[in-house]
Amino acid sequence: MGMSDLDELYRGVILDHYRNPRRKGKIAGDHIHAEGNNPSCGDEFYLDIVIEDGVVTDAAMQGQGCSISQASGSMMMEAIVGKDVSEIQDLAHKFRLMMTIEEGDNPVDESRPGAVLGDLEALQGVRKFPVRIKCADLAWTTLADALEQAAATAS
Amino acid sequence: MTDLSSLRGDFPILAREINGKPLVYLDSAATTQKPQSVLDAMDRYYTQSNANVHRGAHTLAAEATDLYETARGKVARLIGASPSQLVFTRGTTTSLNHVAYGWGLNHLSEGDKIVITIMEHHANIVPWQLIAKHTGAELVYLELNDDFTVDTSTLDQVFDDRVKVVSFSGMSNVTGAIGPITQLRDAARAVGALTVLDAAQLVPHTPVDVDDLDVDFLAFSSHKMLGPTGIGGLWGKRERLEEMEPTEGGGEMINVVERHTSTWAPVPHKFEAGTPPIAEAVGFGAAVDYLSKVGLEAIESHERAITGYALERLSEVPDLTVYGPMDVTKRGGAVSFALGDIHPHDLATILDQDGIAIRAGHHCARPLMKYLEVPATARASFYLYNTDDEVDKLIESLHKARDVFGLN
Fold first, then answer.
1. Which of A74, B178, B404, B407 is the most interior residue, by most CB within 10 Å?
2. H or E element that contains B221
3. Neighbours of B159 (CB within 10 A)
């Protein structure tokens, strides 16, 4: 009890992303901007992305909040750049599945094709702390907003 | 130090375990736990005397009315007031909204100034923002000294005859700092302005007498002083309550209703539209009985001692910053702090694994967080049932948090 759940929640890779967020900043040129926040706790996440020919070619984040919200955002940045939008939608779906799956199931079982989430798997520990799931979700709901804007502009 | 540890048995929830550890409840500034006597009083009301108040001729209606009005008397006596000037509201927020809308909306106009401080809770900011917008009055902030107390060196510049109301906290729910009550009251009076005191963190923790305070309005909540949620108090000077318009219309608050006009019931009923929270009033009264039995002086002295001990132990934790006065005579038992780069929410999660309940966030005081240049703080707050042993557990768990985040 206690320490082991905490160690799982605060894995080294999460603390590394929290302290050294990847792609922190803004994008100067044309981009899509989306903002997310959890008013109950004050976590904030700002996202700039560039989509060219259906591929996310650049992304930058800013924000403030707990280690889970900021690390999740940083990991997401690494996961999306260079991928096309449909791949990202698939990743977002798997991430959501990982955060909502029942105790005992293994959503990142490598025998399941396409189920590997890379660094993002480190966030599995959050599931044992249900009140913190919204922290891990913040970056992804902000991304969903950005992708919706992109789709609206394209159509 | 007054030993109140024998009281812990009166609070059933304190026997709970959280994550396999005994509950260490350090979040009384958010809401307090309830003694059995409060729960029993409310249960007894519902099982024996439940009826609507102020209208029925039957026995239960008379009993319920008597219990409700008796509770009003108890709460009023606690603050040295007449029951006829004590309005039951939903809590501090509603009390402050009554003043803002019932008095402010009808007495303020363009060019007038509303003075508040940067350490206010949203409940004492947002209603005034709304009234400023409605009336064209200007909202003016007093700022803080380096020790987190309100800076009163600028009062001469701020207070002119445009100031019509000064509304401020008697004790900050974030920093614990006690407000400069006498100074602000006198500055307000000198320019003919009203004084509104947010006493949500004051009435539960220190003896309060409205004659001594001599402010125009005083707002407080039951649930922060061992009573149930959903009820609180608004005390006002008689002439102020008389000149204040009702903010809600309905049953109970009227004298005569015609097709197009109505006249109001006398104060305090004028401000109690609809069926009031009767069981909650009964519980509030029982909470006041409990506090009076222990004695507010004893509670204040216990809290001062435990807060002093906590500040001393917290200062031993590396990388820890306290946001609040270090002088226990200038503060109450709400202690905000930050630990290195550990976000307060992460800290709260780690402490919760040890059964320790603290609050993390902006504590409904976002302008203060901005002013202090922090996104959020962790807050431990103490009440009559907390012990030094619980402070030790807090410190131990903070060291563990440093381990988890690799700060050692």
1. A74
2. strand B217-221
3. 22
Closest CB to A42 among B349, B375, B405 = B375
Considering only CB atoms, which chain B residues are within 8 Å of A10? 346, 404-405
Instruction: Test B376 with A1 for CB contact under 8 angstroms.
Output: no
Which residue is catalytic, options B39, B364, B374, B407? B364
The residue with tokens 């922190």 is A24
Confidence label for A113 from pLDDT (cuts 50, 70 and 90) = very low
Regions of chain B short of the pLDDT cut 50: 1
> Hey, are the CB atoms on A65 and B405 less than 8 Å from each other?
no
Measured from the Cβ of residue B153, the count of other Cβ atoms closer than 10 Å reads: 9
- Domains of chain B listed by start with CATH number: 5-30+295-400 (3.90.1150.10), 39-292 (3.40.640.10)
Q: What local confidence, expressed as pLDDT, does residue B239 receive? A: 97
Contact B345 A41 (CB under 8 A): yes
* Nearest residue in B to A135, CA atom: B345
If one compares A42 and B33, the residue with the highest pLDDT of the two is B33
Mutate to test the interface with B, among A14, A67, A126, A128 (most CBs of B within 10 A): A67
SS3 state of residue A34: strand
B91 is catalytic: no
Cα distance from A2 to chain B (closest Cα, Å)?
5
Task: Find out whether B176 and B325 touch, Cβ atoms under 8 Å.
Answer: yes
Quote the pLDDT of residue A105: 59
Cα torsion B144, B146, B147, B152: sign:
negative
CA–CA distance, B110 with B355 (Å, rounded to integer):
52
ipTM of the complex: 0.86
Residue keyed to tokens 């791949």: A87
CB contact under 8 A, A65 and B349: no
Residue A115 pLDDT > 50: no
Measured CA to CA in angstroms, residue A89 lies from A2, A9, A92, A143 at distances of: 35, 25, 5, 10
Structure tokens at B144: 């803080």
A76: which 2 tokens?
A: 């997401």
At residue A112, the pLDDT reads 47
Residues 6+ apart with CB under 8 A from A87: none
**DSSP structural state of residue B202:** T
Nearest CA in chain A to B345: A66
CATH number at residue A131: 3.90.1010.10
Quote the mean pLDDT of chain B: 96
DSSP state of A146: H
Q: Quote the domain boundaries for residue A113.
A: 3-154
Question: What is the tally of structural domains in chain A?
Answer: 1
